[in-house]
């Protein structure tokens, strides 16, 4: 009734055929005796020619219309190579308006991505008509379809887990949902399907996955959507850390090879760095391996030197082989001061392999050869020094990143993956007491015996996948032993009663023959950001919230009636 073909079906083979097309008017060109319309549907654009000018009467851009006519060749000098149907046009015989635009458009569809974000989000249904925005949703669908196929090929079973669940401490604030039937009690939206997927392992499901929605009441960042996100969540029974690594790296490698065919995705297997090594060499647990610079520890070396500001402190160094002007050094020092450093020492290696720089005179002559060996120094090198306390590693990482950017030495059009593992199980909370560093359900390395000593020395079987400095996924070998679980939660300040109360299902299930199991969950939106080159996560989501956590399109969060509040036993203060 509305259409017999779509834009992608129109081409040379349709010449002479009468068809009906439907879509939106992208553009109108009135040339007096003849008029042209660019008709856009989901699949593309077709030019409509109206030789009867009365057909154009009352039409405006973005009207939704249906047109009937015959497909004809265009004049050769009017071919449009930018669209597949660029050599033909529809000679319009009749027009039916299906949906009329009745107020001014808030922005031009073709340039909607240049519009202020709050306006775009308020009129997201118009923004999605923009070809690039629409294509991102198509791209998202294709990537998710491929990920799903990858998991199914590896024997994983897709299982949907509950959205209404119990609140649990997983590192972020819960969204809580009041219960109507149970006064004073609340559901929570899942931060991740953590407990349910572990329960599936106990249930005998061997390999589980789902494209899982997750909900966390967190502030927005460029790479983090406020409120909700999706992840490729998977778990494996009778699996080690290495088993999970193999699945995770194969699936991600294949995905990036398919959807970024012109990029250098590196090779399998992905390199593995311990948390301690990552913090030493890169100054971060999210290393960008496109940057060739590495950080070395010179704390022990400078304990033997005469430079008082370095003695007894942590000293990191970064060697660079590049020509750097005085202005470069001045600007880099200015950056160092802006991130809280006291200064930025450096030495330059001359052609005669002598040193020059602010701290050269504080290094005894007999130790200069040792420094050259430790840092691998050659003529033309410059070595920068970062000194301080516990924050030194992070500051060195920032200087490494800044040097990579300013010198333009990072690889381009490349995806560099790695695993980071062996994270500390516990870290001090704001009161100086042990708290879980990451996932509380992780297995400590060394089991129960390891938990008897210093909790801050315990490493967990926890791991991340990082790509180009972006954390794509976290995961762990899970703690499936109730005795180890009791001890770990006791160290973190949870009594056995609290453990049974808050994690009763897992605690109970693990008493009935739980298998060893492990898994991870790469983030869908971050994968899409990397593949598409988008810098803002909201560009890869159909209906994103604003940076302030509002749904500007539908008006959430919103007030509710007194009656609704009474039904769920809530009174506002």
In short:
This protein has 573 residues and is an alpha+beta fold. It has helices at residues 117-122, 124-127, 131-153, 194-202, 241-259, 275-281, 299-302, 326-338, 368-375, 392-407, 447-450, 482-491, 496-502, 504-509, 524-532, 562-567; strands spanning 18-30, 35-41, 44-50, 64-73, 88-99, 157-158, 176-178, 186-188, 207-216, 227-237, 272-274, 295-297, 314-321, 345-349, 355-356, 381-388, 417-421, 426-428, 434-436, 462-467, 470-477, 517-520.
Protein architecture, described:
The chain is of the alpha+beta class and 573 residues long. The chain has 16 helices and 22 strands. The strands form five sheets. The chain has an eight-stranded mixed beta sheet, with helices on both faces. A five-stranded mixed barrel has the order 1-2-3-5-4. A hairpin with a 5-residue loop joins strand 18 and strand 19. Helix 3 packs antiparallel against helix 5. The chain is globular and about 95 Å long. The two termini are 56 Å apart. The model has no long low-confidence stretch (mean pLDDT 94).
